[in-house]
Every structure is written in structure tokens, then in C-alpha cells.
Specification:
Blueprint: E1 4-9, E2 15-21, E3 24-31, H1 44-66, E4 75-81, H2 85-102, E5 106-110, H3 111-117, E6 130-135, E7 140-147, E8 150-156, H4 162-173, H5 179-187, H6 209-225, H7 229-260, E9 264-268, H8 275-288, E10 291-293, H9 304-316
Helix pairs in contact: 1-2, 3-9, 4-5, 4-6, 4-7, 5-7, 7-8
Length: 333
């Protein structure tokens, strides 16, 4: 029997729906919210209202692209958390209502675990066990994955995430939101000629708050001496900031490989779309003999396919949820 799962992702500002059949992605549709660019960041109330407007059309499109009737579904999967509570409520409520109307099970999915599981959306898949660096606007973690559902955090940020470092640096530089892709593009035009110190954080944990402060003070000092410094040096500033963020991430990954002996390494999450990080992982893997895995761009940012892939393996283990389930803004792995 074929297992058809409709998955819904609504943890932040992207409304996404996907259909997964026997662990294969049949459709993966995403509605973005451009309104947040006006505010320089995601506005929770705006996001939740946009989800309400987008969710029915996106689900309908996902079913049509997959060629699946809703009556042929075997389960509804959804992001339970972590994320913006108002955004999560829209996805969870819709999933509960649809599952109830079709009399099929619900499957709750952890957003960050799903980012890791994006590596199973398309072949080749990493073999177990492997390490995954998950980097996004809200999270930075090194995770050991023993099987599809068994994951252990080995290290994580103690304050800000790598994605926040990119976006808040962009705000200081006067760049549009989200700044990460813009910094990535500008960095290709410059060179890492400015030096920022690496935080001395023990073990496998991260910290980016000090780096953000160092960048701010550096720019203030340079602008005082040369008012046009940012305009004159923008590509070099971006290259320098990106180089330091990537080196912080990769140094911790190298340490994780040394400590665990696991030489299969993957990246996931929104920041895994960064060309500097992708290049650094590939190059380091070649130098040190790692087997590396980098997701396609469509599976880096928030998407429902990764929710559905995770849910498929939970379905096989009959790990179902219930109609009393509620979203969680904070939810540990």
C-alpha cells in the first residue's frame, strides 16, 4: 500500500505544503511573504495573518501538483514547533481540522529535526551515523544523527544564531531584509581583508553576540575616520563578515569530527544555502577525507517537504499525535 502524507510548514513567514508518497516528494509548494521587507524583519502578527490567507491555496496547489485527492491521504503532518506561536497556530489548526474531517492520523514534527531530514528528500542520502550542522536565523547546532528519528545535540549557540549574525550585520550596513543572501552575493565581489576575532567558547557550543558587537564597533570606528567607509568597502566588509562566520562554524564541525570520529558530515537550515559555507564544507571534506552532504537550495529554507519526509518515518513507527496537540514556540529536540 502506498503511504500518502500531506505536510504543512508554518513556523515563521513561509507557508508551505507538500505531498510525500512512500518517502518520495511529489510536490513542495511555498508561499513567501514579501511584506516583512518593509519592516526589516518578520512581524509575527503580519506573518500569522498571511498564513491564514495562504494556507488553503498552497495546500490545494500541493495536492494538484502531486495528482493526489485528499481522500487518498493517510496522514496529515505539521510543524508543532519551535517557531512563531501565531504562525504555528495556523498550521496546527488547519492540520487538525483536515485530519479530523478525513478521519486520518496527525503527525507532529520538530522543525529542526526536519531540517536534518531534508537530506532524505532526494538521493544520495547520508549513511548513519552522521553529523549535521544546522544553521538558521534562530538556531545553530551540531547534531549527531543515529537513525531517522534518533538525534542528539552535541553543541548549540548559547546566545544568537549564525543567521541572526548575518541579518543584524546587514541591518547595521543598511541592507534589505533578509540580509544573508545579499551579504553572500556582495562577498563574492570582495575579499576578507578585515579581521574579526573568533569567540572562545568551550566544547562544541557557539556564540555570535560578541561578533555582532565587534562588527558594530569596528564600523563605528572606521566611519568616524572615513565617513564613506561602508559605501567604499561594502563588498570587502561582507566578505570579511561571512569569512569569520563560516570559519566559526567550520572550526566547531572539525572539533566535532575529532571528538566523535564520525566522518560523514552534512549541513542544513536556511544558512546552509550560503555559498561560502557550502564551499567551505566541500573543501574541508576533500582535504580531511570526509563524506559531505549539502541539500538542494529548495530544501535549505523552510519547506513542507522536510516535514513530510520526517513524518513518513514517524508513520512507519506509528508515532501519531492527537487532536489535543498544541503548538510550541520553544521545543527542545
Amino acid at each position: 500500500m502506498q503511504i500518502n502524507i500531506l505536510a504543512i510548514e508554518s513556523s515563521c513567514d513561509d507557508t508551505s505544503a507538500a505531498v510525500i508518497q512512500d518517502g518520495e516528494v511529489l510536490s513542495n509548494c511555498v508561499a513567501n511573504q514579501e511584506a516583512h521587507r518593509l519592516y526589516g524583519g518578520v512581524v509575527p502578527e503580519v506573518a500569522s495573518r498571511a498564513h491564514q490567507a495562504n494556507i488553503i491555496p498552497v495546500v490545494d496547489l500541493a495536492l494538484k501538483e502531486a495528482g493526489i485527492q485528499k481522500e487518498a491521504l493517510h496522514a496529515i503532518a505539521f510543524t508543532k514547533g519551535p517557531g512563531l506561536i501565531g504562525s504555528l497556530m495556523v498550521g496546527v489548526s488547519f492540520a487538525k481540522g483536515m485530519a479530523l474531517s478525513l478521519a486520518i492520523p496527525l503527525i507532529e514534527v520538530h522543525h529542526m529535526k526536519a531540517h536534518v531530514m531534508a537530506h532524505f528528500a532526494e538521493a544520495p542520502h547520508p549513511s548513519f551515523p552522521f553529523l549535521c550542522l544546522t544553521v538558521s536565523g534562530g538556531h545553530t547546532q551540531i547534531v549527531k544523527i543515529s537513525n531517522h528519528l534518533d538525534m542528539e545535540i552535541l553543541g548549540q549557540t548559547i546566545d544568537d544564531a549564525a543567521g541572526e549574525a548575518f541579518d543584524k550585520t546587514g541591518k547595521i550596513l543598511g541592507l534589505d531584509y533578509p540580509a544573508g543572501p545579499i551579504i553572500d552575493r556582495l562577498a563574492k565581489q570582495g575579499e576578507a581583508k578585515f579581521t574579526f576575532s573568533e569567540p572562545k567558547i568551550p566544547n562544541l557550543d557557539f556564540s555570535f553576540s560578541g561578533l555582532k558587537t565587534a562588527i558594530l564597533y569596528f564600523l563605528k570606528k572606521q566611519i568616524k575616520e572615513q565617513p564613506s567607509f561602508v559605501e567604499d568597502e561594502m563588498p570587502n566588509i561582507c566578505a570579511s563578515v561571512q569569512d569569520r562566520i563560516v570559519s566559526i562554524l567550520m572550526n566547531k564541525v572539525k572539533l566535532a569530527v575529532q571528538q566523535t570520529g564520525i566522518r560523514t558530515v552534512a549541513i542544513a537550515g536556511g544558512v546552509s544555502a550560503n555559498s561560502g559555507l557550502r564551499q567551505a564544507l566541500t573543501q574541508t571534506g576533500e582535504e580531511l577525507g570526509w563524506q559531505t552532504f549539502i541539500p538542494k537550495f529548495e530544501y535549505c529554507t523552510d519547506n513542507a517537504a522536510m516535514i513530510g519526509i520526517t513524518a513518513y518515518y514517524k508513520y512507519l513507527e506509528e508515532q501519531f499525535s492527537h487532536q489535543g496537540v498544541a503548538p510550541l514556540a520553544r521545543w527542545g529536540m
